[in-house]
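Work through what follows:
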Amino acid sequence: MNDEREALAAMLSILRDNDLDGLTVRHGEATYELLARPEPGASVAPPTAAAVAPAGVAAVGSGAPLGSVAATSAVDYKRVTAPIIGVFYRAPSPGVEPFVEVGGRVEVGQPLCILEAMKLMNEITSDYAGVVRRILPENGALVSLGEEMFWIEP
């Protein structure tokens, strides 16, 4: 338990020191996912850690001691992953509104983004209906096969 606390503290430190929005670390069968989320009434987003292990999900808040645990709904999200390696574009062309925004509702079959691979524009559609809770890649970023791109809350 102490080793896990030390590992979480180290990951939180990396998240804070590098001003990251998120960090995912896989160690054995455990996956630790840390996300920066604003606290209610806060103007700066302090980091929050969500440790996703085979047994379930736990969240450790930056304001709480590392030993306190609270549930998070991150496991309820449907995750849209990249079906190919390509450059991620949020909109069909430059200067046009993005396909979706965080907080926006999507339906099954609705376009989410475009992945450009070998000069071909591949429109990626949603397999899920729900609300977009997170868009992970930056516009113009290269995404890998299987990399998470969107979190959708059903």
Observations:
- The helical segments are 2-17.
- DSSP finds one helix and twelve strands in the chain.
